[in-house]
Write a structure and sequence with these properties.
Layout: H1 5-49, H2 59-75, E1 79-83, E2 86-90, H3 95-115, H4 136-145, H5 147-169, H6 173-195
The structure holds heme C (HEC).
Heme C (HEC) binds next to α2, α3, α4, α5 and α6.
GO molecular function, one term: iron ion binding
Protein name: Cytochrome C
InterPro entries: Cyt_c/b562
């Protein structure tokens, strides 16, 4: 009695094995096709936009969320604060404090790559300029017409931030203060050209 079911069992095992192989081939084939398809879709999309990057934030939002906090992190790391209690000299002292300033400098450096990315608008739709500021739509036009100049201002921020980075790596507080002042001027250069040219007072 025990011998009778054995061939059936073997047969069904073979069937299962065949089915598994078929399934793997069919499934694998489908997987391959869908991978190829999605690669095609992705490359078509890239070809259309010419870039693998995707832009989400406007320049205004990038300034507010990334550029300004990073610059503040560099500037605020060194300060002389006078109070009734006396003069407090704030500067990075521990390795952790220097590391913190360094993070901000790196963020600022890389943020300039984001600022000059193709297709980024000045501000969200409906944003209202304040007195003396250009309308964001005008800023868009201005940037598009003067891309090299816009990029050069971002490069000024990079160059001055690299000076700050060198000062940070040398633990040189004085040099960091000097570089901080230069970063500020670099920011201002772009702002008086692209953001509020009418209110730019001659220096
Ligand atoms: C390459 C040009 C460029 C550089 C460099 C630049 N900015 Fe800006 N920034 C702009 C433009 C353009 C706007 C105005 C966007 C708008 O409101 O339409 C702006 C706006 C701002 C705002 C206002 C954001 C808000 O919420 O309204 C702040 C703050 C700011 N920038 C800080 C900085 C700081 C700090 C630096 C330097 C570390 C800097 N920016 C460097 C182009 C630049």
């Amino acid at each position: 009695m025990a011998a009778a079911p054995r061939p059936r069992l073997r047969l069904s095992r073979t069937t299962v094995a065949i089915l598994l192989v078929c399934g793997a081939v069919a499934g694998g084939g489908r997987w391959y096709v869908s991978r190829a398809e999605s690669a095609q879709v992705a490359s078509a999309r890239e070809a259309k936009s010419g870039s693998p990057f995707k832009v989400f934030a406007t320049i205004q939002e990038l300034m507010d969320s990334t550029v300004d906090p990073a610059a503040d992190g560099v500037w605020d790391s060194v300060a002389v604060i006078s109070t009734e209690a006396g003069v407090e000299k704030r500067e990075p002292r521990t390795p952790e404090e220097w590391q913190e300033v360094r993070r901000h400098a790196l963020t600022l450096l890389e943020a300039m790559n984001l600022v000059v990315m193709e297709g980024r608008h000045a501000a969200p739709p409906g944003a209202q300029p304040k007195l003396g500021e250009l309308d964001p739509k005008q800023i868009d036009v201005l940037i598009r017409a003067n891309k090299p100049s816009f990029a050069a201002f971002a490069d000024d921020v990079r160059a001055t931030t690299l000076e700050a980075l060198a000062a940070i790596d040398k633990r040189d507080v004085k040099a960091l203060v000097v570089a901080g002042g230069k970063i500020d001027q670099a920011c201002e250069g772009c702002h008086v050209t692209f953001w509020y040219p009418e209110s730019a007072a001659p220096r």
